[in-house]
Structures are given as C-alpha cells and as structure tokens.
Amino acid sequence: MAYWLFKTEPDAYSIDDLKSDVQQSTFWEGIRNYQARNFMRDQMQVGDKVFIYHSSCKVPAVVGIAQVTKAAETDPYQFDASSDYYDPKSTPDKPRWIGVTVQFVELLSSQVTLKAIKADDAIVDLSLKKAGRLSIMPVTEQEWRHIIEMSKR
DNA sequence: GCCAACGTTGGC
DNA sequence: GCCAACGTTGGC
C-alpha cells in the first residue's frame, strides 16, 4: 500500500465537501499535470491512503485522510468544452487525462500546516517542501507517520 | 494582488 | 532537440 498527498483548494472542494459528498467519495477530476497523472496511472492502487491538503487558502495545511476506492479511469471533463478542465488536444479514443476515486476516511484531530511541515527536519523529501507545484505527490511511510504524529500534538 | 518558480509550447 | 516566451500555481 502506498501513501499520497492530494492538493485541493478548499474554496472549490474541501475535505468537508468530500465528507458530505455522496458516499463520502468523489472522482478526483481535473488533474492536468503529467507527473501527477503518471502517479495515478502507474502506481496508485485501491486501498492507498491519501492526505488531503488545502492549498491557496489562509492556512495551507494537511487536514484529513482519504483512501483510493477506484483505480484510474478517463476524466470526462477533458472532452467538455464548457469545463475549465477541457483539453482540445485530447480525444476519446486517446484520452490524455485520468482520475481516481477517493473516499473520506477521517479528519486529522488538528491540521498540520505547511509552516509546521517546512519547519520540521524529519520531513525532507516531500515535494510540498520543495516549492513543488505538483497537485498529487507521493508520501513516504515515515513522512506519513510523522505527519500523523504532528496532528496529535 | 504580487511575484517567484516551474511546466508547457512552439519557433527555429 | 534547444530554449525563449508564456501561462499557471500557490505562498505570502
């Protein structure tokens, strides 16, 4: 089982939206970055754990946990000309973009802020720390455990 | 709202 | 295939 971190803008779709969504789950559409896509396509499996991270907001932070409930499938929004996620270069017989389905697991008892993560020497490799703009990134098991511990402080 | 960082595009 | 220009992301 692998660990991941998904960024989302809470104004658009927050962890609370996920929690109150149908079956507490959602198709994670709109990933338009090749590195992120390749993680979903090549490595992500049902049962993988996911940190939900709120970005572009007052306090950027890891706020909760979700899990992958469905492996990658074609993201239909790439064919929808009225969608922000429309990609005119993608075709149904050769789709470029995919998404997985995730389900809410739990809220962290306290959020772990970007500030705290940046200040913590135990977290070195996390892309979040390297000014990465990656919307989906791998998390090592140690980092996962460490961030869970931080949320309990 | 600014701007640095970085990914993508397209001309050559 | 290089690289400059451009667009986007995301913290502040």
Automatic annotation (TrEMBL):
Organism in which the protein naturally occurs: Pseudoalteromonas obscura
The EVE domain, residue ranges: 2-150
InterPro entries assigned: 5hmC_binding, EVE_domain, PUA-like_sf, THYN1-like_EVE
Name of the protein described by the UniProt record: EVE domain-containing protein
Residues annotated as signal peptide: none
Pfam families: EVE (PF01878)
